Automatic annotation (TrEMBL):
Protein name stated in the entry: carnosine N-methyltransferase
Any Pfam family the entry gives: CARME
InterPro entries: CARME, SAM-dependent_MTases_sf
Top-level taxonomy: Eukaryota, Fungi, Dikarya, Basidiomycota, Agaricomycotina
PANTHER family membership: CARNOSINE N-METHYLTRANSFERASE
Residue ranges of the region described as Disordered: 96-142
Keywords, comma-separated and alphabetical: Methyltransferase, S-adenosyl-L-methionine, Transferase
Single Gene Ontology BP annotation: methylation
Organism for this UniProt entry: Rickenella mellea
Protein origin, superkingdom: Eukaryota
Entry GO MF terms: carnosine N-methyltransferase activity
EC number: 2.1.1.22
Family: Belongs to the carnosine N-methyltransferase family.
Length: 415
């Protein structure tokens, strides 16, 4: 079903609100830091003097500077948002010289309303309220919810595109890539370009990039505008390694062992996104996974049927974004070729649990999900638990470890 006019308008309003959030990062974040200055002046003179002795005000100045550096980076991502509006976003990862980066035809997917119940979410939930109508005379005022998603995007850069994130990537992406290489060990490096790999919920695209870097044809899929703006920027507008410096930890002073942990600069990217094999096929498709890949036959004017089109699907911290995971399992199964493989790693932090928008949410445990996989026609192997973090600040006094489930699921029958 093509989107209705109302849905297209809602989508565009949401996108322009996301752009407004990026643009207003500096005043919003500086105001939050200014609150600390104001609070300082409410203290007794003696306490103010003691804080002056330990350089508290200087620290606030350093935070301001870090915010301004972040703001310069954030602004670059929305310096040309027209490329997204009304655009056919089929190939977000643009071709680099000699590289074919074409994706299938999609537009922006529709982000669904949803709020999240936990503060240590491994993912950004989508907007909780319907977008306010655009009033040309009045600028959208980002909420803390919007800003939180932008701040999470900065941390997502650390996970995907910094040396600092290597440990996290090694524990998540490496076992998945190893399983992929293992499954296709009979395919020579030269022939890998014939193997089509899909990465739904691709985030900032590093896993998809690594797969393309190995010579596979790889497509990422993502529907968050925050992620799409950020991944488009890093994948297509980066010229050199460590071109950017951001300060992703300056937004909260809680659980910091010292000043350097708070003000730690992170350099990006640690790999050059354009560094891909000659003629490689790497694309990032914008939109909702179920809408884009879910069509059963070629009777959807907007989305070509993807039935039996993929050799492998890799999901990292993704399956729990489903309202009804059975549908995700069915879509993954349907789009795989017979004998195709689905490699999964992630927790079950059901994103729609406790949503305030009356969306359905079916929250299953691992055993239930695995039983459903078998019923739908997968054979599971390689099952194990892998401990890993998600956008963790390695120097903070608080960290969450996920005991994620890993499996390789081979499509054995059509059900
Ligand atoms: C927890 S994040 C994981 C990102 C990435 N795989 C990683 O490991 O860093 C889940 C991602 O899935 C995306 N996502 C959630 N539901 C989606 C959907 N229905 N279609 C496409 N992307 C979706 C979110 O926007 C988010 O970027």
């Amino acid at each position: 079903m093509p989107p209705s006019e109302a849905e297209i308008i809602e989508e565009q309003i949401h996108f322009s609100n996301v752009v407004a959030t990026f643009e207003q990062y500096a005043p919003y974040s500086l105001a939050a830091n200014n609150r600390r200055r104001k609070d300082l002046y409410t203290l007794p003179q003696a306490d103010q003097a003691l804080l002056a002795d330990i350089g508290w005000k200087d620290k606030l100045v350093d935070i301001d500077k870090a915010i301004m550096a972040n703001a310069a980076f954030v602004k670059q991502m929305v310096s040309n948002p027209e490329i997204f509006l009304n655009a056919d976003l089929s190939a977000l990862a643009e071709g680099n010289d000699g590289h074919d980066h074409n994706g299938s035809n999609t537009g922006f997917g529709h982000e669904n309303s949803h709020s999240h119940s936990t503060s240590h979410s491994h993912c950004q939930p989508n907007h909780p309220n319907s977008p306010k109508p655009i009033n040309p005379n009045k600028r959208y005022r980002p909420t803390d919810f919007d800003m939180d998603k932008l701040r999470s995007t900065l941390k997502q850069f650390v996970r995907d595109w910094s040396e600092e994130g290597k440990g996290e990537r090694d524990s998540c992406y490496k076992p998945m890539i190893d399983a992929l290489l293992d499954h296709f060990s009979g395919v020579s490096e030269e022939q890998r370009s014939n193997i089509r790999v899909l990465v739904p919920g691709a985030g900032l695209g590093r896993l998809a990039y690594e797969i393309a870097h190995l010579g596979f044809a790889c497509q990422g899929n993502e529907f968050s505008h925050y992620m799409l703006l950020a991944s488009y920027f890093i994948l297509n507008r980066t010229e050199k390694i460590n071109e950017h410096t951001i300060y992703p930890y300056v937004h909260s002073l809680s659980n910091m062992p010292d000043r350097s942990a708070l003000l730690r600069p992170i350099m990006l990217p640690d790999a050059l996104p354009s560094d891909l094999p000659e003629g490689s096929d790497f694309s990032l498709v914008a939109g909702d996974f179920e809408e884009i890949y879910g069509a059963e036959e070629n009777n959807d004017r907007d989305h070509e049927s993807q039935v039996g089109m993929w050799d492998a699907v890799l999901t990292c911290f993704f399956v729990d974004t489903a309202k009804n995971v059975i549908n995700y399992l069915r879509v993954i199964h349907r789009i795989l070729k017979p004998g195709g493989v689905w490699i999964n790693l992630g927790p079950l932090l059901w994103h729609w649990e406790n949503n305030t928008t009356n969306d359905p949410s079916i929250e299953l445990d691992v055993e239930e999900v695995k039983t459903l996989c078998r019923k739908i026609g997968f054979q599971l192997s390689n099952e194990r638990t892998i401990d890993t973090t998600y956008t963790n600040n390695t120097q903070a006094m608080l960290g969450y470890v996920y005991h994620t489930e890993f499996w390789t699921a081979t499509k054995i029958s059509d059900n």
